[in-house]
Specification:
The chain is an all-alpha fold. Helix content is about 55%, strand content about 0%. The protein has a domain at about 5-55 and about 70-105: Helix Hairpins (Orthogonal Bundle), CATH 1.10.287. The protein has a two-stranded antiparallel ribbon. A hairpin with a 6-residue loop joins strand 1 and strand 2 (about 150-155). Helix 1 packs antiparallel against helix 2 (about 25-50) and helix 2 runs antiparallel to helix 3. The radius of gyration is 28 Å and the shape is elongated.
Length: about 160
Amino acid sequence: MTVSLVLVVVMAVLFACGVYLILERSMTRVLLGILLIGNAANLLILIVAGRPGTAPIVGGESDQAMSDPLPQALALTAIVITFAVSAFLLALIYRSWRLAQRDDLTDDDADIAVRTERAGSEFVADPVPASDDSEFSGADDETLDATAEEAVPVSEAAAKEERA
């Protein structure tokens, strides 16, 4: 079995460019990276499949060896998975563009705080700090009003509206 060196080099370049694009902060570049990696995976499957032969469905004795249908099935599966992931990423990019008029990922304030707070520790035992529920003591059974600026029980929110 001889493999074309050109196909191997093209596959390696596609993988390298795809990984580089995935590490960017722009969602559009991440989408392009996913597409490049999907195409590189298809090339890898075709390279590993070996020499082409006759169709495996053809019966009878033939001089050529039959081709293996497994790489063809794997290539089809890789195409479908790449299509699904790219459709999902396109939906994310569209939503990001509609909400923020950009597709760059930004650092969340909570992520920055956690990163600066625990910069030197290797193991984080409690990643979520315990919340202080002392202001809601006695209001455990009541529903909270989600429209108020502060979360207060509905009965207190109704009392504030009556006073106003």
